[in-house]
Specification:
- Helices cover 34% and strands 36% of the residues.
- A four-stranded antiparallel β-sheet has the order 2-3-1-4.
- It is built from four helices and four strands.
- The chain is globular and about 50 Å long.
Length: 132
C-alpha cells in the first residue's frame, strides 16, 4: 500500500460578487469560506478589495464587489475549489493562482483583514434607510 504525499501550496484568489453583495458582506464572506472549506483549504486572509464598475456586463451585472483571499491548500484540491466557484450562483467569477513566493506576513495581510472586519461591522450596525 502506498501513501500519497500531501503537497500544500500558497494561493491567492480574487472573487467577484454582484454589487448587491455589498449590502450583506457577511453572506459573501461566508460563501467564500464555505467554498474554501469544501476544498479543505486553510484560509490565511480574506479582504474586501474593491467595489467598481465592470469593464463589461457579467451575468447582467454592471458593477461588482471584489474579495482577495490568500490560503494554503493541497494542490490536488484546488480544481475542486475552482469547480465549486464556477457552479456557485452567488459568485460571478473567481480566479485562483498559485503564489509560493508570498511571505507569512503577506499571507496573513492583517491590516487589510482588519479594515474588512471593521467595514462589515459598520454595515451591520448602520440603521436601515427607509424610503419616505
Amino acid at each position: 500500500m502506498t501513501t500519497t504525499e500531501i503537497r500544500n501550496g500558497k494561493y491567492e484568489a480574487m472573487f467577484l460578487f454582484p454589487q448587491a453583495a455589498s449590502a450583506d458582506l457577511t453572506a459573501a464572506i461566508d460563501h467564500i469560506k464555505e467554498c474554501l472549506s469544501k476544498g479543505e483549504a486553510t484560509l490565511c486572509s480574506l479582504v474586501k478589495w474593491d467595489e467598481r464598475r465592470l469593464a463589461y456586463d457579467v451575468k447582467g451585472n454592471k458593477r461588482g464587489v471584489y474579495f482577495l483571499t490568500r490560503f494554503t491548500a493541497d494542490t490536488r484540491k484546488v480544481k475542486e475549489i475552482e469547480r465549486d466557484c464556477r457552479l456557485s450562483e452567488k459568485m460571478l467569477r473567481a480566479l485562483i493562482v498559485r503564489n509560493d513566493e508570498l511571505t507569512d506576513e503577506q499571507m496573513q495581510n492583517v491590516e487589510a483583514a482588519q479594515r474588512t472586519a471593521d467595514e462589515v461591522k459598520l454595515r451591520e450596525d448602520a440603521p436601515a434607510t427607509s424610503e419616505e
